[in-house]
Glyoxylase, beta-lactamase superfamily II (Thalassobacillus cyri), 207 residues
Amino acid sequence: MKIVQLPLGPLGTNCYVLSEQEKSLVIDPGGDSDQLIGYLTENKLKPSAILLTHAHFDHIGAVDDVRDHFDVPVYVHKEEADWLTDPNQNGSAFFQMGRIAARKAEHHFDIGEMSIGPFMFEVRHTPGHSPGSVSLVFRGEDFVIAGDALFQRGIGRTDLPGGDMDTLLSSIRKELYTLPDSTKVYPGHGPATTIREEKSENPFVTW
């Protein structure tokens, strides 16, 4: 499997494109839809789905353009089902970057094992940054896409609606730090890290 990180949108949110031959998954298309669609088209990739680790505005800005261009479904956790359409809930109404919204997702994640096309992964509920945050664990490839739960030497903010520090710390310890130490962590912002590194070096949450 090939994984490509594309910082997109007003906050440089990491969008991930996972590909197996011509099949792909798009995770967190935060903006700059022309750039993302151009990358997919140039590399002859047909997305099977758009997956959202959560529905904050900086993770959803290109959702509708990519969904409509490739005619693919969107997945989000049910607790944030209404956030896509509501700038007050997805946060864009508060940041003076314009009101960002998208149509509702076609599907809600089932927690546990999932498969979409050739892609097999586990969905883990990791709330705290937001109530519907999920992390996507690709065990066969030894990596997790953690959204804004865990960063290199950092954690997601908890001062937005639905955020809670104790919940986030519990999610990291129970759902992320229990992964193998070798697991590579691809966060919503910034560079990749590993579970081993964060257990020993993250100043916000200890193991």
Helices lie at 33-42, 63-70, 87-90, 165-176, 195-201. The domain at 2-201 is CATH 3.60.15.10 (Metallo-beta-lactamase; Chain A). The chain has a mean pLDDT of 96. The chain has five helices and 14 strands.
